[in-house]
């Protein structure tokens, strides 16, 4: 009798552990999978104009993204993702805004948002020299072997990843002495195709900040322009520490498991507000994260 009671208790404990584990997975890992997949598929379809089947095969086939099921809805320009029918995430496309993952706010609230966009300048890029336009006038440098360069570009385009699968390189652009000397694109991609920026955005942000500093419109030693940080322990966070990633905020950037960054990107509607709310772990300017 005691043995039966023991095994019954053990079975119930294991069942409880499985339920708790599955609950944790469904609210973290599975949400990250469905969020990442729906957001990236939506951007690929509505901004890059790619075939959904190609995106799923090339971009979403590796584990754990392969657990997700993703559906494109042309009627409302959206993509829905889920894992085994749960942990659903929806991303909507809005012209001029790109693709937005629905979190915190309702889909209706997001669709009702109004934005004013600056009008694009009307210019003919073919009449303006690169990099401001598309006109290329400089001759190919005589000290570079064009055949060898093309072979190197071809090798990169055919590159494989560590597991031997295609790396799906989308574009190669080579600059020499301020001039484009080689460029090549995968089928379905060309020079005007928008690409995922990820951390390249940091370099662009830093460059724009540098321009403002040069114009005496910005001082990197000023406090970060975050009103809720004033008169708190975060008041010593400056624009410089933001640019150098030394704010000291308790933020973990790990994409192999649920972390601060996956929560911010795929489970939060206002990513900036979430990050602003994080506690201080180190003194500003003392540790690069």
What does this 3D model show about the protein?
The protein has 289 residues and is α+β, with helices and mostly antiparallel strands. Among the domains are: 2-103, no CATH class; 200-276, no CATH class. Helix content is 36%, strand content 13%. The chain contains nine helices and six strands. It has helices at residues 2-27, 29-46, 52-59, 107-111, 146-157, 200-214, 239-243, 260-267, 271-276; strands at 68-73, 78-83, 86-94, 98-101, 171-176, 179-185. The strands form two sheets. It has a four-stranded antiparallel beta sheet. A two-stranded antiparallel ribbon has the order 5-6. Strand 1 (68-73) and strand 2 (78-83) form a beta hairpin. The longest helix has 26 residues, at 2-27.
Blueprint of the fold:
Blueprint: H1 2-27, H2 29-46, H3 52-59, E1 68-73, E2 78-83, E3 86-94, E4 98-101, H4 107-111, H5 146-157, E5 171-176, E6 179-185, H6 200-214, H7 239-243, H8 260-267, H9 271-276
Helix pairs in contact: 1-2, 2-3, 2-8
């Amino acid at each position: 009798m005691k043995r039966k009671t023991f095994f019954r208790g053990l079975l119930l404990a294991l069942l409880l552990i499985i339920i708790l584990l599955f609950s944790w997975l469904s609210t973290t890992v599975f949400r990250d999978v469905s969020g990442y997949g729906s957001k990236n598929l939506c951007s690929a379809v509505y901004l890059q104009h790619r075939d959904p089947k190609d995106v799923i095969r090339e971009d979403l086939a590796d584990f754990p993204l392969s657990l997700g099921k993703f559906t494109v809805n042309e009627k409302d320009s959206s993509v829905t993702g889920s894992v085994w029918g749960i942990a659903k995430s929806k991303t909507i496309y809005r012209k001029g805004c790109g693709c937005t993952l629905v979190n915190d706010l309702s889909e209706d609230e997001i669709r009702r948002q109004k934005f004013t966009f600056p009008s694009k300048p009307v210019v003919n890029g073919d009449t303006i020299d690169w990099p401001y336009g598309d006109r290329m006038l400089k001759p190919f440098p005589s000290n570079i072997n064009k055949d060898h360069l093309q072979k190197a570009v071809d090798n990169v385009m055919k590159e494989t990843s560590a597991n031997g699968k295609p790396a799906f390189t989308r574009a190669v652009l080579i600059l020499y002495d301020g001039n484009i000397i080689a460029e090549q694109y995968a089928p379905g991609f060309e020079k005007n195709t928008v690409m995922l920026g990820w951390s390249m955005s940091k370099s662009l942000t830093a460059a724009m900040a540098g321009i403002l500093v040069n114009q005496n419109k910005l001082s990197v030693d000023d406090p970060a322009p975050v009103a809720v940080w004033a008169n708190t322990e975060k008041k010593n966070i400056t624009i410089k520490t933001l640019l150098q990633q030394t704010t000291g905020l308790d933020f973990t950037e790990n994409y192999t498991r649920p972390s601060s960054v996956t929560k911010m990107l795929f489970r939060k509607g206002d990513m900036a507000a979430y990050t602003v709310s994080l506690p201080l772990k180190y003194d500003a300017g003392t540790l690069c994260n």
